[in-house]
């Protein structure tokens, strides 16, 4: 099984490159989403993630990064978005209605709607299997956005073709880089975050959030960084997340 680092890198690179290929823009690059729009995006994200009956580990970690990004953009505590996600994932039958309300309220044009569908396709594909139940949810969202079935089929076909080619290419690059990385000694979690073992957890949490903002792939993409920088930052962010989770477990923090 391919590692999470590889999958999350494929996720961000695919969305960035395929987005350019389609002539659309990532919603977080050119304008900051407000809380209401973020609600819609998180709600639809939840329905796609739960489309096959459960939220996979890879999907959960991608969702966590997305929620962090939404929190950063809106200034709203990420716990609020987690509540929205947990509520919306329990009811996936209203995906069409949510998408329709989102489209009408924010007057999404076709170009933006295709960009949103592309984003959701990334999540649906992240575990390597685009299940029929996920296809159904994507179709309902697309129809809610006013995208007909013929256009959706074209979007999915192009995305699938592009995904498979990028998957092979990135896997080869990741395998080559992993050989050298495996020989390096693993750093201690406090060293990774740049804090001492005696630091108060509030300070550790503050430092963690600073590092997430510094190395978050979506933020760096918006700054026009190269694929090489994005790749290194994605791996660094994974290391930061693992270090933070280890410290939380050691200290009994939720």
TrEMBL record:
Residues annotated as domain J: 188-254
Matching Gene3D superfamilies: DnaJ domain, TerB-like
InterPro entries registered for this protein in UniProt: DjlA_DnaK_co-chaperone, DjlA_N, DnaJ_domain, J_dom_sf, TerB-like
Superkingdom to which the source organism belongs: Bacteria
UniProt-recorded name of the protein: DnaJ-like membrane chaperone protein (N-terminal terB-like domain)
């Amino acid at each position: 099984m391919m590692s999470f680092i590889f999958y999350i890198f494929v996720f961000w690179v695919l969305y960035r490159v395929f987005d350019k290929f389609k002539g659309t823009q990532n919603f977080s690059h050119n304008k900051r989403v407000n809380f209401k729009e973020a609600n819609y995006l998180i709600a639809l994200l939840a329905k796609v993630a739960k489309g096959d009956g459960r939220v996979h580990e890879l999907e959960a970690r991608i969702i966590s990064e997305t929620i962090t990004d939404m929190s950063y953009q809106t200034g709203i505590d990420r716990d609020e978005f987690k509540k929205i996600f947990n509520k919306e994932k329990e009811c996936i039958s209203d995906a069409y209605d949510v998408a329709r309300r989102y489209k009408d309220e924010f007057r999404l044009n076709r170009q933006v709607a295709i960009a949103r569908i592309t984003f959701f396709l990334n999540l649906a594909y992240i575990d390597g299997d685009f299940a029929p139940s996920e296809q159904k949810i994507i179709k309902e969202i697309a129809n809610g956005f006013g995208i007909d079935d013929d256009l959706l089929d074209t979007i999915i076909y192009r995305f699938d073709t592009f995904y498979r080619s990028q998957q092979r290419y990135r896997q080869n690059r990741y395998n080559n880089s992993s050989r050298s990385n495996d020989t390096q000694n693993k750093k201690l979690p406090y060293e990774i975050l740049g804090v001492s073992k005696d630091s108060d957890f509030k300070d550790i949490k503050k430092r963690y959030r600073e590092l997430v903002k510094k190395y978050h792939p979506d933020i760096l993409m918006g700054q026009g960084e190269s694929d090489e920088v994005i790749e290194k930052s994605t791996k660094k962010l994974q290391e930061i997340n693992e270090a933070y989770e280890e410290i939380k477990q050691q200290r009994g923090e939720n």
